[in-house]
Write a structure and sequence with these properties.
Blueprint lengths: L7 E8 L2 H11 L3 E4 L11 E5 L4 E6 L11 E5 L3 H10 L8 E4 L2 E7 L5 E7 L2
Parallel strand pairs: 1-4, 5-8
Antiparallel strand pairs: 1-5, 2-3, 3-4, 6-7, 7-8
Length: about 120
């Protein structure tokens, strides 16, 4: 079977305390902030990306420490979101509809057989 999804592009970690988590990952672990870089205060940010090599670590604000609901989500890159979604659905994968959470970003969400969340994502280039 040919692969439909590409490289693992993001791991999204839902956090309740964005400034505290930024301090931990940036200052304690030494990760470089990829987006938005150079801010003095991250308390109003809901999406902070860290450079980790081949996969981006994303802190997503709004986490409430709910076991399961705030679990990390893995995100796979796809070239064509609509074609990938269709092919995966044909293979029996349950995926939500394609949505655009930000300009030029297209996402479809799913769960593996044990309920772990994942997404497929494409970006306009």
């Amino acid at each position: 079977m040919p692969g439909i999804v590409g490289r693992l592009m993001e791991t999204i970690l839902y956090v309740a305390d964005m400034p505290g988590q930024v301090v931990f990952y940036r200052d304690r672990l030494g990760l470089a902030i990829k987006y938005p870089a150079g801010l003095a205060d991250y308390s109003t940010e809901y999406w902070v990306e860290f450079e980790t090599g081949g996969c981006t670590l994303v802190l997503h604000g709004g986490g409430q420490k709910r076991l399961g609901a705030d679990a990390p989500k893995i995100v796979f890159s796809v070239a064509d979101i609509h074609a990938a979604r269709e092919a995966l659905v044909e293979r029996g994968v349950t995926l939500g509809e394609v949505r655009s959470p930000a300009p030029g970003v297209w996402v479809a969400d799913g769960q593996d057989p044990e309920g772990n969340q994942f997404s497929i994502e494409s970006k306009d280039r």
